Amino acid sequence: MQGTRKRKQTHLQPSAKSPKSTVNSGCAATASVESPFPDYPRPTPEECCSVRDDLLSLHGFPEEFVKYRNQRSKTKSKSADIGEDDDDERESVLDGLVKTILSQNTTELNSERAFASLKSAFPIWNDVLAAESKCIEDAIRCGGLAPTKSSCIKNVLSSLLERKGKLCMEYLRESSIDEVKAELSLFKGIGPKTVSCVLMFHLQHDDFPVDTHVFQIAKTMGWIPSSANIKNTYLHLNSRIPDELKFDLNCLLYTHGKICKRCSNKKLGKKNKEIEDLGCPLLAYSKQIVVENKIPKEYQMSKVGT
What is the pTM of this model? Predict the structure, then answer.
């Protein structure tokens, strides 16, 4: 999920629980997640809701994630059984995993081109598995890091066939978050961020991936201590952010991080000039005083500007 591209945003209203909304301050995040910073009080549920609303007002909901948002609505509402038509339209879990692998260290446009090229050259996954690595590399070269990604995809497919007898991951739809993490961690080259993206986008679980954009914004707003790294930031934010806010907030923070100079420490350019002119709404959160948020003394140096 990295890279920058210029794209018109689709302006949608916040999801059902969100009109300049309130959030249940007692609503816990995923129960199985424990923060490595249990005494660190940010972000609060109210902050998460407010940031989500502010970014929705600024950007609208990012067009690239609309289809995943709609799928989540269908799955979460359970207002109707998913029929055959829905199954035909729904992206397979294996497709989603490969797309996530191809999205690493490139723009969304390039990763989409790489996936389309791969499927054009090899319509079914058995074809990919049977192909020479060089042929796969040629098919996905436009997405960058072709040798590394080709090796990872081939390894996933061969391991999956060996373990399950067929190239299908739909069994993961019936698994819990912890079960999915345990299962995907068995595949060489599949890291925590990839697993988290599959959980959130392709399995409709309440998880909160942390990439460099989200990590930098969390630091800028003082949502994590200065000592935090990406790994423990993932654990901390998943324990603090209410489940019903995770998807929208993650998509919006990622989008904002790509174009906001002040949040991502980028040099000002054409693609973030608009945000610079409007002013970043997240600066208000980074300027909240330590006393107000009751941050323990051992964490107070994490405050922006100190």
Answer: 0.81
Write out pLDDT tens, residues 3-39: 444 333 433 444 433 444 555 544 455 545 789 999 9
Tokens of 11: 């302006």
Bridge partners of 10, per DSSP, are 61
CA distance 242 to 248: 11
pLDDT digits (tens, 9 = 90+) for 255-295: 999 888 777 665 544 544 554 545 789 988 876 544 445 56
* Rounded alpha-carbon distances, angstroms, from residue 205 to 54, 69, 159, 235: 24, 12, 24, 15
Q: Out of 193, 219, 246, 258, which one is annotated catalytic?
A: 193
Distance CA 121, CA 270 (A): 36
CB of 295 closer than 8 Å to CB of 42: yes
Rounded CA-CA distance 111/2 in Å is: 10
- Mean of pLDDT values over 157-167: 97
Q: Which residues contact 90 (CB under 8 A, 6 or more apart)?
A: 71, 82
Q: For residue 148, how far is the Cα from the chain centroid?
A: 21
Residue 154 among the catalytic residues:
no
Other CB atoms within a 10 A radius of the CB of residue 122 amount to 17
